[in-house]
Amino acid sequence: MLTTLFVALAISAVFAGVPSPEESKRLMDHFSDAEHFKNEHHNKQFDHDAFLGEDQAKTFDQLPPEESKRRLGIIVDKIDSDKDGFVSLVELKDWIRYTQRRYIDEDVERHWRQHNPNNDGEIPWETYRKNVYGFMDDMDQSDMNEPNSEGYTYANLLKRDRRRWTQADGDHNDALNRTEFAGFLHPEDHSHMRDIVVLETLEDIDKDKDGKVSMEEYIGDMYKPEDGEDGDEPDWVKQEREQFTGYRDTDKDGFMDEHEVKDWIAPPEFDHAEAEARHLVFEADSDADEKLTKAEILDKYDLFVGSQATDFGEALARHDEF
Ligand SMILES: [Ca+2]
Ligand SMILES: [Ca+2]
Ligand SMILES: [Ca+2]
Ligand SMILES: [Ca+2]
Questions:
Q1: Which residues share a beta bridge with 122?
Q2: Which numbered ligand comes closest to the C-alpha of 83?
Q3: CA of 6 to the centre of ligand 1 (A)
Q4: Minimal CA–CA distance to 13: which of 1, 23, 27?
Q5: CB atoms within 10 A of CB 144
Q6: Is 86 contained in some domain?
Q7: Ligand 2 centroid to residue 263 C-alpha, Å
Q8: CA of 267 to the centre of ligand 1 (A)
Q9: 177 pairs with which residues across the strands?
Q10: 185 domain residue, yes or no
Q11: What pLDDT, on the 0 to 100 scale, is given for residue 227?
Q12: Where are the alpha helices (DSSP H) in 169-193?
């Protein structure tokens, strides 16, 4: 539940990068990562991103376990702002909010400079389009209509970016100033962009493009049985089916429409920093006193910062990349 606003965050971080044809594979990988964010089960990367900020989480992924534990210890001292030796729920929530703010601010700054090297007051759409999608001008246009082709994928990304741009362009001059650009890049962080986030999420899940989310699309978005796997679904998938019928589909017509998707991913009072803080405390609080000692946090270091590569024994494979 708490994870869903990050869908947009992850997607937009990709968008504003400059996808080149060679990067399409990586880009699609990011999209599948983004899908994992909708499902809180076993998604440590999400916890790491919330706890460290996305950039820092990537850095930590490269570190040996001993070094990431050492750095985690230093971070714990920072989080314990009243220095009583415990990390409280509030301290953890404040920290998560701070890392998220820092990540978004740095991300906006980086992309603003990238698309606007002369530091003008605004970025015109055409400048942005050329930077990000200019390579499409040289692509075979007939490819753009061929579903599942690279051209088709890019054409859709362009269309989506264009729509988001228009929504972010508060004064309707087809150029974005820095504030408007921040809304474009991180719509999940701006209430007037909420409808676009809902729409993009719905479109991602709505595989048959009928404008609504069926049970199968809802489940298919978070769970795919392994090849050759038969038999029972895991319990959490069964629970998600019950969630869909019992809560998501409020008018009981068998589908989630735009309003129901909105209630799901963007409930009005939902505080995802607090939800994430509660989740981390719940997972790491061995003696159940509702606050965390440094030892409790270090005990669960893989929950907070541990490298996924190490977890899955892929450290060697990763090593080959460098
Ligand atoms: Ca404290
Ligand atoms: Ca504008
Ligand atoms: Ca559908
Ligand atoms: Ca419904």
A1: 177
A2: 1
A3: 27
A4: 27
A5: 17
A6: yes
A7: 29
A8: 30
A9: 122
A10: yes
A11: 65
A12: 178-185
Give the relative orientation of helices 89-115 and 54-61 as an angle to the nearest 10 degrees: 100
Between the alpha carbon of residue 169 and those of residues 46, 64, 155, 252, the distances in Å are 30, 44, 21, 37
CA of 254 from ligand 4 middle (Å) equals 6
Give the distance (Å) from ligand 1 centre to CA of residue 63. 27
Query: What is the domain range of residue 96?
Result: 5-208+272-309
The pLDDT of residue 14 is 38
**Residue 308, CA atoms < 13 Å, CB-side half-sphere:** 11
As a whole number of angstroms, the distance between CA 232 and CA 210 comes to 29
Residue 280 CA to residue 297 CA, distance in Å, equals: 9
How many residues are given for the chain?
Answer: 322
- Look at residue 317 in the predicted model and tell me its pLDDT: 35
237 lies in a domain? no
- Neighbouring residues of 153: CB distance < 8 A, sequence distance ≥ 6: 24, 28
Burial of 141 (0-12, 13-18, 19+ CB in 10 A): exposed
Q: What is the DSSP string of 53-74?
A: -HHHHHHHHTS-HHHHHHHHHH
**pTM beyond 0.85:** no
Domain count of the chain? 1
Closest CA to 40 of 2, 6, 10, 8: 2
Degrees, nearest 5: CA angle 303-307-310: 115
* Residues 168-174: contacts with CB under 8 Å, at least 24 apart: 168/193, 173/122, 174/124, 174/125
CB-based contacts of 50, cutoff 8 Å, min separation 6: 6, 96, 99, 100, 273, 276
Query: For the chain, which residues score pLDDT lower than 50?
Result: 1-42, 308-322
**Separation of 208 CA from ligand 4 center, angstroms?**
16
In a domain, 111, yes or no: yes
